[in-house]
Amino acid sequence: MLNLKVVTWALGIATAFSVVFCVAYGLATPESLHMHAFLEQVLPGFEWLSWSAFVIGLVESFLYGVYAGLVYVPVYNFLQRRWGA
Fold first, then answer.
1. Among 4, 22, 2, which Cα is nearest to 67's?
2. What is the tens place of the pLDDT at every residue in 41-66?
3. For residues 8 and 52, what is the distance between their CA atoms, to the nearest angstrom?
4. Is the CB of residue 69 less than 8 Å from the CB of residue 17?
5. What share of the chain is helix, strand, coil (3-state, %, to 5)?
6. Lowest-pLDDT choice from 32-36, 37-41, 67-71
7. Cβ atoms of residues 52 and 3 within 8 Å
């Protein structure tokens, strides 16, 4: 059985870290290798190289991870109870 709180926080932090990593990567590489177009599509309100938009993207990515944990853990636990060893 997975712990809802632990998995939800872990996914939220991991997705927030991923956005920080993508932005740092974009700052360190040429523009042809940036992920900013993708980030702008999946994170409403995010625009490249704006502090307020970066914070919005960070919060949104964290919430996407939280949502994934809130959906995944109950489904996993249900299937584990039903068909687990």
1. 4
2. 999 988 888 899 999 999 999 999 99
3. 25
4. no
5. 80, 0, 20
6. 32-36
7. no
